[in-house]
Amino acid sequence: MTEAEARASLRAAGVPDPARDAQVLARAAPDAGTFAVWIARRSAREPVSHILGRRAFWNHEFRVTADVLDPRPETETLVEQALAAPFDRVLDLGTGSGCILLSLLAERPEASGLGTDLSEAALDVARGNAVALGLAERAAFQQADWLTGIDETFDLVVANPPYIAAAEMPGLAPELRRWEPGLALSPGGDGLDAYRTITRDVPAHLGPGGRLMVEIGATQAAAVTALFAAAGLTNIGVHPDLDGRDRVVSGEKAAM
Known about the structure:
The structure is a single chain. This protein is of the alpha/beta class and 256 residues long. The chain has helices at 3-12, 18-28, 32-43, 48-52, 76-82, 99-107, 120-132, 174-177, 182-185, 193-201, 221-230; strands at residues 54-57, 60-63, 89-93, 112-117, 139-143, 154-159, 206-215, 234-240, 246-252. The longest helix has 13 residues, at 120-132. It starts with a helix and ends with a strand.
């Protein structure tokens, strides 16, 4: 299969950017047979990151599988905002591949952190990424339903929780709907349940002046900001991604 034939196949399958994906897969394939198989997989709308088993995020490449949410550029907004102030101890709720926690720790050599996830399969991926990046000594991982079983306090808590409303799920791109873990995409209902739990429980796990930062959907800023305020957090802010869409809500626990 030539690259031109690959582009045509991907275009016919409705792949959004067939030229880019054909080029990426052509460069990574060791031989023509592999390339043809990969194009068939991409034509079935399997994400390129799943085919290659890796995804670039922040300053590193992370191993990804169908057990974790595919790291996306908009989530780098959460990392950028988290790095805007110092922290020594960070908690990443719903860590998935570990991309947020590990990106933060790589930028802060004196910091350590904990990543939690309900999925043991996801935690296995995160642990492997920590080893690959040389961060295993500073990054621990624990199976937990949000903060259940977590006893310590943190300077910083971050989360990219499932936030897609149940009614929106059928309209998602096939790459999301067919291939990514539903648990990481939607909590059902109005999409806000994870924020309700996080804002209810996190303040007790923040030290004075500690920060909470969450990724949100583009229409959820007002609702999540209200939850932050109801939880007693202060200095609440909404931060846009590079496309100008509301992407992160941040708040602080009042200093004593």
